[in-house]
Design goal:
This protein has helices at about 40-50, 70, 80-95, 110-120, 125-135, 150, and strands spanning about 5-10, 30-35, 60-65, 75, 105, 140-145, 155-160. It is an alpha+beta fold. The protein has a 4-stranded mixed β-sheet. Helix 3 (about 80-95) links the parallel strand 4 (about 75) and strand 5 (about 105). Helix 4 (about 110-120) packs antiparallel against helix 5 (about 125-135). The longest helix has 15 residues, at about 40-50. The protein is globular, with a radius of gyration of 16 Å.
Length: about 160
Amino acid sequence: MSELHLYHGSNQIVGKPALITQNHTLDFGYGFYTTLNENQAQDFAQKVVIRQGKGTPIVNVYLFDEKALSDCSVLEFKSPNGAWLDFVCKNRNGTYKGPKYDLIKGPVANDDVYRTVTLYLSGLLSRTSTLKALKVKKLYNQIVFASEKALLYLKFKISYEVKNG
């Protein structure tokens, strides 16, 4: 069994990951969001505390059983291409009506990237210009657990508080 570490930034310990309905307008829609990048999770944990005005920045660490990649339906975007842009825009707008997946992997539209996507959505950037701009931005990754089945392959390991500096 192959396992790897995934990280989830929050303002609390999340010992039992769950599907959160309120996050349906995020990049990849409804699900539990994780990343392979520990620094990204630390940054996000700090942003959650600031946005919500409560809690402590916490990084939750999980073991991911990669057997899920063959047992579950997976949608993967290797780069911020046109299909990724369409998928993110539809999810962010709440208009995605396509197939449901257990796991979704790909680049994350962080605040900087999402500004570019917003310019595209408002008609100020063309599709070609948007995709060209995204290629030069530093893109982090995300792995979204979008079904109860997928969550079975994620096991809580530990959590820790993010220290400033």
